[in-house]
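Here we describe the complex-level prediction in full. Unlike the single-chain runs in Section 2.1, the two entities below were treated as one system.
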Amino acid sequence: MKNNIRVERAIKNITQADLADQVGVSRQTINTIESNKYVPSTVLALKIARVFGKPVEEVFILEEED
Amino acid sequence: MKSRFLFPYWCRYLGLVLILVHIPIVMFKKDLGFDLHETQPSSNLFNSHHLFFMTTTLLMAIGLFLIAFAKEKIEDEQILQLRLDSLQWAIYVNYIVLVISLIFTNDTEHILFLNLLIPLVFFIIRFRWKIFQNNRLIKE
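The structure predicted for the assembly as a whole is:
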């Protein structure tokens, strides 16, 4: 699974720490999600998408091998 | 996400204190009046050998337990997953060592001791290592 969190953050001009605060996880978690090391739960994915005001599919994208 | 059955964050430091207290007790056992050789043949409960073994083992086990199962500062879903992964590793390692030691020795007291320590110690090391890796990643 890929994600556009880094791009969306740049658009909204917020840091990893800001995003982490808003969805209630640690900065490390946001960082590992951005670098595709950790796949978030559905709840967390929905929360992140809500921060960016977009549907989940625009932030998280399935890949061929998923 | 809620994580149940975990101790508050400060319990980690309580656990460290218990382990630090346990080390000098083991080092100075003779000075404290636990002369193991005299009492070893007696098989009664609560003789000095048994009391010594019980107190030190309990101190250490409870200390490790508190360190292993105290909450992180931010206990989120990734931490929960690391915890679960590390626990699985710890159980695997523990049983591999148990099987090997059952085959190659018949020293039950030490097997019990290893069995008591390995899951907790291995869990703590693996869990801390993963957290350390994540922290290092963030600094890059």
